[in-house]
User: What shape does this take?
Amino acid sequence: MIPAVKKSLLKIFLIPLFLFILVFTHCHSNIKENEIVIWHNMRPEEKDILQRQLNEFMKLHPGIKVIQLYKETEEMRSGYIVAAIGGEGPELIYGPSDQVGPFVEMEIIKPLNEVFHEEYFSSFNEDALIISDEKIWQLADKLGNHLTLVYNKKLLPVPPKTELELIEAGKKLTKDFNNDGRIDQYGLVWNYTEPYFFIPFLTGFGGWVLDSLNQPTLNTPAMIEGLKFIQDLRDKYKIIPGETDYDIADVLFKEGKAAMIINGDWSWSSYGNAGIDYGISTLPLITVTGHYATPMVAPKGYSINSNIDEKKLELVKQLLEFLLSPEKQLETSLEVKTFPSRKELYDNQQLLNDEILLNSKKQIEQGIALPIVTEMRAIWDAMRPAYQAVLGGFISPEKAAEQMQEDAVKKIREMREESENPVWGLIVQLMMLLVVLLTLFLTRKSIAAFFRNFKKNSFAYFLVLPALVIMITVVLYPFIYNIILSFSNMSLTHIHDWEITGFDQYIKVFTEPDFYEFFLKTLIWTFTNITFHVVIGVTLALLLNKRLPGTGIFRTLLILPWAVPQYIVALTWRGMFNYEYGAINLILVKFLSMSPVEWLKSPTEAFMAIIITNIWLGFPFMMIIALGALQSIPQDLYEAADIDGAKWFHKLKTITIPLIKPVMIPAITLGIIWTFNNINVVWLVSNAGEPSDKTHILVSFVYKAAFNLYRYGYAAAFSMVIFLILFAFGMTFLRKTRATESVY
Amino acid sequence: MNKKKFLVNLLTYLFLIVFTAIALYPIINVFTISLRPDDRLLSTSLSIIPENATFKQYVELFTNRPFLLWVWNSTLVSFVVTVTGVALASTAGYALSRFKFIGKEVSMLGILTTQMFPATMLLLPMYIMLIKLELINSYLGIIIVYSATALPFCIWQMKGYYDTIPFSLEESARIDGCTRWQAFYKIIFPLAAPALVITALFSFMTAWSEYIVAAQVLQDTDLYTLPLGLKSFQSNLTTEWGLYAAAALVVSIPVVILFIILSKWLVSGLTLGSVKG
Assistant: This one.
């Protein structure tokens, strides 16, 4: 009998093994000698041009393969950091100039002075050479990424020159055509809740974000005036919508329901495609100060990976010279309306004849270069909450300016914090060793018994071990790595040379004032979600399990929220929560005669919005599990209960719930763990914690406050704390529900 | 009695209809986005069929984009992960439900703890590990990671379901001359069909929709899975929303088909009802 057992057992393990080998041999692609990889964040139209130009290059250099790979800006940055720290990554990375700051500090890109001659650089506009520590790190092919005023020529033939004209035109063009109390056309729209889109008004009133020592300069009269100006546009002159984000503003302009929009060069062609006859104009002069409202200008260009193979360097140089040549730049500029970086193109007639490019050039000449220092990231993160609080009416502009400054100073200090304590480092290392030894010592009997009884229990081990081995392989190394990291000072300035420094990071976690608030929010978030998931899921499963005609269709339709990719439905939900145009408010007003709710503007409602979205996303899964669980209940139990004349509620309590418990408990336990750490929905629906960084749970907070500011040691400690919270929960919950034991 | 039953059924349908409507509404919105001719995520109008509705996004998807390649890649990866998940979780869950052995409690808790760490934090060390194992840019790497991600839930879930099946079934099978393996494979395994369905669906979805690990590990565009492909329609502030929406809907179809096929075993009624507990 035993050989037969082995045979069939083998069969079940051989299938996956065979498939592994199949997949492994067929789809492993090696990194090739003559291959250059470029990561970039270009728009689709720009990408097509790049591909065309790369094809030309490959024709000139047979045997060379150049691959371009699109990545979203933020993800490209974090992905590149991970890859480069791991000693890998693409040969070239293309993106906005501000990514150079952190890359230089982390020493993951190569100075270009080692690759090109000095005279080559002199043929570029100075703004196109991204310099730090007197070396050039990035060579731009495009200048721009700048905001301008875009206007609908049909509604507004001549763009306003000053802020007064802007307000006047705005008032004239903001209209309620059918007098229903709802504005049907706005004078001006833009993504004004995002600090990057506020900058022109900061500069217009004479302010700037940082000084020559890279210290923030946010608490200034200019900031206060700028904030008041935005408030006035909305509340006093009423020429902009009460609640806007990027997508709403974009849609209003595309639908011809807004006369002007402030948006960047990336957006213009899409307005043409939407059939809008648009013009570009420089942002208005602020007459009170005599300054123009000027946007930030960010060059975009190429940097070389510091891990690059020396043999490829010459080839990469040739490729860059090809892509940055005046001919290629001109080609790109004329097609996608971006501005070139080669000086010799500046008096090119073709460029000067293009109305859009000409006005764009004017705006670029007025613009101020986006600072590339890493501090900028802290400044953006500090501006956003206070700025949004002003717009929400929670604090005054004066208070906001003060808060921004304080917050920026704090964030920069945290980012650059040094914690070196070799004594503590040694102690921690000894303690870790001690813990390992102690664990081994305490479990020595079990371990010995394990080997002694292995043979006796071999069948059970045979069944369990393959799964355990796979999980341990994947999780163990990252887990230990993270524990060590959590005692270390790994951060922006210590990427390669980090060392163990003790408990500082943990102390920082527990002294972080926001920790407790977000912990509470995480508990509410988790508890509410799971309760609704289970109640809705089980109820639906009970109804579906009655097997009335047609339930098969309902069953299939009801799993759709689970089947459709989360990203787009989460964003759809965000749209549904919009104050003016969202479906939810419309239903509240029209069918339930309630007053509309400002879902995304105030912290409590925004928090409710993310919970509602996640309940919607999660109930189908619980429904499927409950449906499966219901099948394990023998029908005759119900029949017996019916004979006894039991009411449905009684049957539910005494038969259904106890009998689906063994299957539901694991799903609930894991559901709680997953929901506790579910960053996606929070991030998408609240747009990374808006308003004012209040809509966070612990994981999204640690991502934003630690990971984004490259505080890896702190992030690791924070994650360990999250882990320990969940671990404590898991132990108690399982003990209470006795899920590790069998029921029979 | 009949009148009461009619009323109950009516209420059941009403409840189901309301919930189905809530479940479908946002998805109908996605469908609307896919019909818009000019890449717009939102609209100020609430109509389901937009102005100038067009199916050009769907045509574009299948003719001008390597969409079918992504579907094939994702199917391959998801299939392997599903088979691995079902094979390993059904056996491991069985052992945890039926046998007493040293290390059982530790394994069960250990399995659970793998899910407790915020995944984004594990990305860097996981990547470094995969580089060392030379599993970058290969499906083997992500298949192992996905299997490890899916297994904890699957094992616990299988264990929970086996727990509801009486021991007496195997005992009588053993008396009838079955080996332990045969008792599991021939008697208990088929009875656990609903749990196997859930395990299969869950493993499939884990692989079908995972993005973060895939984005770091797969750099060769020929190896792209669906989530990576879909993401390529997206750029900073100018996303090809029409295409994205169309693709998102097409991507859900295989999941729905799989569910319809597997539903047969999920609610077959052929399980414990026929076996006296």
Observations:
- The mean pLDDT of chain A is 86.
